[in-house]
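Working notes for the structural subgroup meeting. M.R. asked for a predicted model of this chain before we commit to crystallization trials. I am recording the input and output together here so anyone reviewing the notebook later can reproduce the run.

Input as submitted:
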Amino acid sequence: MTIVVTALLVLGVAATWLGTAAMLRLSALARLHAVSFVTVAAGGAVTAAAWCADGPSPRTAKVLLIWIVLLLSGALSSHVTGRAIHARGGERR
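Returned structure, recorded in C-alpha cell form:
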C-alpha cells in the first residue's frame, strides 16, 4: 500500500514539474492549458493517494472536495483570463 501511495505522490510531483516546464515554454494564452493540466493531474494523483492511504474516510472526503473546488475554480479562472486576453486584442509580445 505504501508503494502505491508513494508512486501516486511522485506522479503528482512529476505532473507539477511538467506543467512548470510547459509554463516556461508556452505563450501566454497557451499557458492556461499548463495550469489546468497541473490542477487535474497533480490533484487527481493526490486524491488517489489519499484514497489508497485511508480508504473512505472524512479526510479523503475533504481531499476530494478540495480537488473538486479547485477543478471548478480553475476552469472558471482560466476562462476569465482567456476572455480578458482575447478582449484586449490577443497576446502582447
